[in-house]
């Protein structure tokens, strides 16, 4: 398993998987990976991922304006449509029930920051009661020294926030 900020909780083999977000990538400067094992079936994990429509499930005091992410499934959030907002700053661009969610920075923020980020949360079944939740993040950072510094800062920040998010999903899925 990788332990760096770029590759947390994933194996070399998992980084070689073709992720759905790869179809949306043209010229991205970085790809980061995250992963966690969850003792729950893919349908349960998918339902929890759909809850990102209303909350980020990371550090709520930072990225949810202090509101606690729901600790119980909200009915209906697993009825997805392309273009729906996810975690406020992203939009849903592709999904497969029980399989994956792919999100992209919303168009307004893409214009403001002149960049894009595309992320897939991929559920890999291990058996009936266990799966891996793998995440691939494509990031487009500016070129040059400022881009490298920005990328390093964003990678570390994303690692902190997404690590908390994945651990929260693990806890919530395994409680069901």
Structure, explained:
This protein has 176 residues and is of the alpha+beta class. The protein has one domain: START domain (Alpha-D-Glucose-1,6-Bisphosphate, Chain A, domain 4). The chain has five helices and seven strands, in the order βαβααβββαββα. The chain has helices at 12-15, 42-50, 60-63, 107-113, 144-175, and strands at 7-8, 30-38, 85-86, 90-96, 100-105, 117-127, 130-139. Strands 1-2-7-6-5-4-3 form a seven-stranded mixed β-sheet. α2 crosses α5.
Brief summary:
The protein has 176 residues and is an alpha+beta fold. Helix content is 32%, strand content 27%. The chain has a 7-stranded mixed beta sheet with strand order 1-2-7-6-5-4-3.
Which features characterize this protein?
single chain, 176 residues, alpha+beta, 7-stranded mixed beta sheet, globular
Total DSSP E strands? 7
Going by CATH, the architecture would be 2-Layer Sandwich
The top-level CATH class is Alpha Beta
What is the tally of helical segments?
Answer: 5
Largest sheet: 7 strands, mixed
Number of domains: 1
Side-by-side strand order of the widest sheet: 1-2-7-6-5-4-3
> The CATH topology, please?
Alpha-D-Glucose-1,6-Bisphosphate, Chain A, domain 4
SSE string, helices as H and strands as E: EHEHHEEEHEEH
User: Over the alpha carbons, how many angstroms does the gyration radius reach?
Assistant: 15 Å
């Amino acid at each position: 398993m990788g332990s760096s900020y770029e590759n947390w909780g994933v194996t070399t083999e998992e980084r070689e998987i073709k992720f759905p977000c790869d179809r949306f990538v043209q010229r991205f400067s970085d790809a980061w990976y995250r992963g966690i094992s969850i003792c729950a079936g893919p349908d349960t994990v998918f339902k929890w991922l759909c809850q990102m429509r209303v909350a980020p499930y990371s550090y709520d005091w930072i990225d949810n304006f202090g509101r606690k992410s729901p600790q119980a499934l909200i009915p209906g959030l697993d009825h997805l449509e392309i273009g729906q907002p996810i975690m406020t700053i992203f939009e849903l661009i592709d999904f497969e029930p029980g399989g994956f969610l792919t999100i992209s920075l919303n168009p307004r923020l893409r214009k403001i920051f002149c960049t894009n980020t595309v992320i897939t949360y991929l559920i890999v079944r291990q058996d009936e009661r266990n799966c891996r939740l793998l995440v691939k993040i494509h990031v487009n950072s500016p070129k040059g020294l400022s881009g490298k510094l920005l990328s390093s800062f964003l990678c570390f920040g994303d690692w902190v926030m997404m690590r908390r998010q994945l651990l929260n999903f693990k806890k919530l899925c395994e409680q069901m």
